[in-house]
């Protein structure tokens, strides 16, 4: 249930939206630098042991019933899965020593697999045939296996050729009693040092926003402040039309920023759904391997599959539910500004993953506990007007925290402001959320203002709201073009 409807605006970071369920995106120079720095301690070459950061892509059994008789058959299946976006990566560490190839959990260093060198039947690279350009392939079979396994790893930190040379030298030394691996390790070490010496430097920090004092004047923060609106020269140059143009530009920027937030939200939901799909597929494969086993001893490839089958934590489920609610709010707010797909189409897209997520955590109880963010009145009205009967049933099963708007929520309720944290590291402006309609109790404010002012509030505020909305639409048409980028 992959979301195909992320919008055109990229997030406020250079790398843009993830675009794919497993996060295989083109990285900016800064992102690449940070990623390589993060894993610089993962790629280690010592006297007899080398270690590389890799991403496990898939494991196939060489089985005629699966139409995999040769290595080329397995490669073709990987390419087919890649074309259908059915590959989900799993980070791990690959260690090579003079006795075995080990796979470790990146976080816990727990051993997932240990392939003694005599069980490694074949090793090769698969280059530039999928969106993962540098793949290492291993064929392994121990004495208890009837059929060999074919493992695929994406080498994201060093070239697959380097890991391949390392493994081949270890195999040659083990089979023939030679001592060629020390030279191979030395050469690889030099390559890694050379690579690290030419890492692209990080880009400069993001521009510091101009701070304003109480009078609205720009405060210097190593940036050129705009001319003060209280400056007489500025006032003489300004005109009504100029102010109108400026306000339209500000509204257009706000729409653009909210669209970026929506894109990041959809990306994170899509990544979470991909994790659920990866876990479900790994669990299925794990059960297949365990069928008919007479002992409980962990079999080959079961360590990797167990890691892949590990479900997200409760906190991660809650985070995804919160982002789904945020997406509903943003779709309602931006519904007149986005198209192809439209906001209503994206609502339907979201209910597919939402159903999967709810069923994956055993029912709607956890979703019911997710109060913040509440939905705006626009969002609840918009959802009610566009859902199918099946979607309505799911939505209503999630409880009042999803179906009652912020204006309908008890006034005394202390609901914390929801500030999302995105997977790509982008931090959106906090003020967008603090003043959002789903965070402000609009209904109660209207009642208080109406009683204080003799009820002229509704008509005047409606006219003002309509004027602001018209300005926003016009600004959007002139300054922002939205379309689907996927």
TrEMBL record:
Gene3D superfamilies: Pleckstrin-homology domain (PH domain)/Phosphotyrosine-binding domain (PTB) (2.30.29.30). SUPFAM superfamilies: PH domain-like. CDD domains: PTB_EPS8 (cd01210). InterPro entries: EPS8-like, EPS8_2nd, EPS8_PTB, PH-like_dom_sf, PTB, PTB/PI_dom. One of its GO terms (cellular component) is vesicle. Residues 1-21, 172-247 are annotated as: Disordered. Residues 199-208 have a biased composition (Pro residues). Residues 51-171 form the PID domain. Residues 232-247 have a biased composition (Basic and acidic residues). GO terms for molecular function: actin binding. Residues 1-19 have a biased composition (Low complexity). GO terms for biological process: positive regulation of ruffle assembly; regulation of Rho protein signal transduction; Rho protein signal transduction. Pfam families: EPS8_2nd, PTB. This is ES8L2 protein. It comes from Upupa epops. The lineage of its organism: Eukaryota, Metazoa, Chordata, Craniata, Vertebrata. The gene is Eps8l2.
